[in-house]
Input
Amino acid sequence: MSSARKVLPIIKDIHEKQEKKDAKELLINNGEIDFENVEFFYTHENEQILNTINLNLPGKKMTALVGHSGAGKSTILNLIPRFYNVNKGEIKIDNQSINDCKIHSLRKNISLVSQDTTLFDDTIANNISYANRNATPKEIEEAAKYSFASEFIEKLPNKFNTLIGENGVRLSGGEKQRISIARAILKKSPIILLDEATSSLDAETESKIQKAINFLTKGKTTIVIAHRLSTILNSDKIYVIDKGKVAGEGNHEGLLKSSEIYKNFYDKQIVKS
Output
């Protein structure tokens, strides 16, 4: 209790600073996201992470971010749900500034699937339903089915009532990813953020997770970061990010001709594989 008295006022103060008193509910229609002259740097560092970023992420379509490690791709993703606030510029969803929206209203419309899945020492059913506490057992089972999680859940002794241990210690990396995708399916949010969701997986597991992602993202505004170009070749739009700036924009065929950075990625990964 003594620790809580010290910590809780700090958490409350941070939240009040982030959200305006007259903040409004975010109303999603098409789910189009725009970055307008966005600049960002961490307050404890002088180095600028993003420099005058302008992006148009079309609603209900897939946009991919490609670039070297440290280019700023994950930072772009983290700015959308306001894990960080921009230093300059503005981010809009359906022409509504996210700084004018209630944080809960913003985040309930976004699902994040990353390579680091947070799981709890609880049952598989409760870990999936964390995305929607009102979900019925049938809805949880359907989400598991479409994420291909049912394949391993049905083999467990207690199936959906199996305890998975601290941070899912009893599950493999691919199984954790499928739980994460099941959560996103259950949440039914119109915006999906995928941060290297298929990295560090074997080919068979990656194939299943890619199928699950295809189901999850159908008709949704999707922003995906992937080291493996094979997973994003069919994206509606691709942005090349380099040293915190937009270094290229277009589809796969167009960027092969216009972007040396993208062509180098393609030559190393696809042509030589």
